[in-house]
Amino acid sequence: MQLKDIIVCVVSASVDASAIDLGHQIAMDCDAHIACSAIGILQSPVLYTEFGMGAAPVGLLNHENALINRFFAELKEVLDKRFPLIELRPDKTYSPNLESRVATIARYADIAVIRAPSKEESHPYIQLIEAALLGSGRPVLVAPVDWNPGPIGRKIVIGWDASAEAARAMHDALLLTSEDAEVSIVTVDARSGSLDHGDAPGLDIAAHLARHGLKVELRNEGSLGRSTHEVLMQVATDTNADLMVLGGYRHSRLQQSLFGGVTRSMLRDVRLPLLLSH
């Protein structure tokens, strides 16, 4: 199956430019349809009394609607300059409904593209990514904040921990992989003889990808005091990778928040397009 339907989820016409650029690039590479879901987030609570909606909430709501409509108009100007055409899908939702709305939006495409959180501004980007990843059943392609348009899927790093999430991410990555791609499969501190990795960590999955006609390199890396995130990023730098592939949230969001995890660490430091699957 080929990638033919892309959705880009944005909340700002200017700040989310890298996500639009990335979605547009893969749409051109794959000859795919691309739509931009412009999500206007209403923050004001809707308060009702026996006389109807209160005056102050109505004023706030009107102000927010005006800002959102301006965002839609600005985004339309940006998208109208693109070729091939990017379909605009304006949408409004209240903040408490954001995650369920994004999950629903992402289900109707092959892949969702969302901008990475910045160090200064993580909200609502973490919410958008997690909603699409955990609630849609679709892979999410995370665009770096400062991504420069270029080739995607020619030099790929796959973080392999032998989990179901990693297997799904690896398979989803085939949608973005060029026929002459060079793929580096990376394990970190994988132990021979373990139930998940077997006697030769990474060897079976490397052989599986090689049967797809890809040039595959297996790298069993030791952490040597580094985090898994740091090891993967070093391999990406060494190989000049244009795509990182990971299984997302092998542990729960609560565990990730309390104790950290590879997914959360990677999202805090996205330097190249990052494909996540769950």
Can you tell me about this structure?
It is a single chain. The chain has about 280 residues and is of the alpha/beta class. The chain is built from nine helices and twelve strands. The chain has two domains: about 140 residues, Rossmann fold (3-Layer(aba) Sandwich), CATH 3.40.50; about 120 residues, Rossmann fold (3-Layer(aba) Sandwich). Helix 3 crosses helix 4. It is globular and about 65 Å long. The model has no long low-confidence stretch (mean pLDDT about 90).
Give a summary of the structure in a few sentences.
With 278 residues, this protein is an alpha/beta fold. It has helices at 17-30, 55-80, 98-107, 125-135, 164-173, 203-210, 228-238, 253-259, 262-267, and strands at residues 5-10, 33-42, 48-49, 52-53, 87-94, 111-115, 140-143, 155-159, 182-188, 215-221, 243-247, 274-277.
Topology (SSEs and partners):
Layout: E1 5-10, H1 17-30, E2 33-42, E3 48-49, E4 52-53, H2 55-80, E5 87-94, H3 98-107, E6 111-115, H4 125-135, E7 140-143, E8 155-159, H5 164-173, E9 182-188, H6 203-210, E10 215-221, H7 228-238, E11 243-247, H8 253-259, H9 262-267, E12 274-277
Parallel strand pairs: 1-2, 1-6, 2-5, 6-7, 8-9, 8-11, 9-10, 11-12
Antiparallel strand pairs: 3-4, 7-12
Helix pairs in contact: 3-4
